């Protein structure tokens, strides 16, 4: 299956789960998911001490920790789905084969294959509004070795559904073997996708194949890639790309478009431009028509010869609702490297 076909399949899976113009369908999907309770935040005493210190202003920094927050419409109880993508330095993590996997590892070694190594991480934090904690984050995950580039792990994510508003997210990770920890403090403005009017979610800039995300989304869970309900996408978080990168994909959701009965979906037109650091247009794609709210636009990055290494640029996305005669513009900065 080609890269474009995999992306289209993932977007179709998303479209089945996200139906902005038909609340009854979305409600049916939620009901089918069952009354499974959300996992509760669980923190070790060590993580609790690190978090308490961070809330007081003392941020642990034993290793690099990269994070970026993304906002999407949510159908699970309303509100906005906030997903925090994160990556860490692999050299600062303690990898190994855990005891329950030893028998399997020995069998793999006998067969001439190397057993998979993982690092045990604790992910924890506090979501705060006006100085008061409104959510607690606490879970563990096994991060496989050599899934990212030479220096960092692949992208993983966790999240929760939040009402619109301003938040402070104090969060971090802790290696459960070495005890090394790193904390971040991110200030977020969570939009309200339930209000009337055309809106565009956060935009993922995706490399590699999308993945189907198992089960239903749950808070206090860690996912491979940035999860959007039924699919997960590999966004590097830095939005830095080599000039030789063949293709990237802009992935996002459009909400608030009017329903077109003839097309059984919205009637959208998407326009894409690249602007230089002075806001001047240097590239433009032909307008794209779309009748679904999930968008995956491939950009042939290596074919855009005007992009120069070392420079910063901006993707400008204009979404038009052709029925309501409304439009909204979203910008996403990125950088070109050698």
Descriptive overview:
The chain has 338 residues and is mainly beta. The chain has one domain (3-337). The chain is built from four helices and 23 strands. The strands form six sheets. Strands 14, 18, 19, 20, 22 and 23 form a six-stranded mixed sheet that branches. Strands 1-2-5-11 form a four-stranded antiparallel sheet, with no helix packed on it. Strands 4-3-6-7 form a four-stranded antiparallel sheet, with helices on one face. The two termini are 29 Å apart. The model is unreliable at 16-35 (pLDDT under 50).
Give the gist of this structure.
The chain is mainly beta and 338 residues long. The chain has 4 helices and 23 strands.
Topology:
Blueprint: H1 3-17, H2 23-33, H3 45-55, E1 65-73, E2 80-88, H4 102-110, E3 118-129, E4 132-144, E5 156-162, E6 165-175, E7 181-190, E8 199-200, E9 204-206, E10 211-212, E11 223-224, E12 226-228, E13 231-233, E14 240-242, E15 248-255, E16 259-260, E17 265-266, E18 268-275, E19 281-284, E20 288-290, E21 294-299, E22 312-321, E23 326-337
Parallel strand pairs: 14-23
Antiparallel strand pairs: 1-2, 2-5, 3-4, 3-6, 5-11, 6-7, 8-15, 9-15, 10-13, 12-13, 15-21, 16-17, 18-19, 18-20, 18-22, 22-23
Mean pLDDT: 87
What's the count of strands?
A: 23
- The total count of helices amounts to 4
- The geometry reads as globular
From the N-terminal CA to the C-terminal CA, the straight-line distance is: 29 Å
Question: What number of domains?
Answer: 1
Q: H/E order of the elements?
A: HHHEEHEEEEEEEEEEEEEEEEEEEEE
Overall radius of gyration: 21 Å
- Helix percent band: 10-25%
- The structural class is mainly beta
Low-confidence stretches: 16-35
Which percent range describes the beta-strand content?
A: 35-45%
The largest β sheet comes out as: 6 strands, mixed
């Amino acid at each position: 299956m080609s890269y474009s076909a995999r992306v289209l399949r993932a977007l179709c899976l998303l479209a089945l789960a996200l139906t902005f113009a038909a609340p009854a369908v979305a409600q049916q999907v939620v009901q089918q998911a069952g009354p499974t309770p959300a996992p509760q935040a669980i923190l070790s005493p060590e993580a609790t001490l690190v978090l308490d210190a961070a809330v007081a202003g003392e941020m642990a920094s034993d290793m690099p920790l990269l994070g970026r927050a993304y906002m999407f419409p949510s159908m699970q109880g309303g509100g906005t789905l906030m997903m925090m993508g994160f990556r860490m330095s692999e050299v600062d993590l303690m990898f190994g084969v855990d005891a329950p996997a030893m028998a399997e590892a020995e069998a793999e070694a006998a067969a001439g294959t190397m057993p998979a190594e993982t690092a045990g991480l604790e992910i924890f934090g506090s979501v705060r509004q006006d100085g008061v904690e409104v959510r607690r984050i606490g879970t563990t995950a096994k991060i496989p070795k050599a899934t990212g580039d030479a220096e960092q792990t692949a992208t993983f994510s966790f999240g929760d559904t939040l009402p619109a508003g301003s938040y402070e997210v104090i969060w971090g990770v802790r290696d459960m073997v070495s005890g090394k920890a790193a904390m971040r403090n991110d200030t977020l403005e969570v939009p309200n996708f339930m209000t009337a009017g055309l809106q565009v979610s956060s935009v993922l800039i995706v490399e590699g194949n999308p993945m189907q995300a198992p089960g239903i989304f749950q808070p206090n869970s860690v996912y491979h890639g940035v999860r959007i309900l039924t699919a997960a996408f590999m966004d590097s978080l830095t939005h830095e790309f080599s000039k030789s990168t063949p293709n990237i994909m802009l992935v996002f959701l459009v909400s608030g478009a009017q329903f077109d009965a003839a097309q059984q979906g919205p009637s959208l037109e998407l326009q894409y431009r690249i602007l230089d650091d002075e806001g001047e247009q240097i590239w433009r794609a032909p307008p794209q028509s779309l009748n679904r709210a999930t968008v995956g636009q491939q950009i042939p990055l290596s074919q855009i010869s005007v992009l120069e290494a070392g420079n910063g640029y901006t993707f400008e996305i204009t979404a038009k609702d052709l029925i309501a005669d409304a439009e909204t513009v979203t910008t996403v900065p990125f950088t070109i490297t050698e």
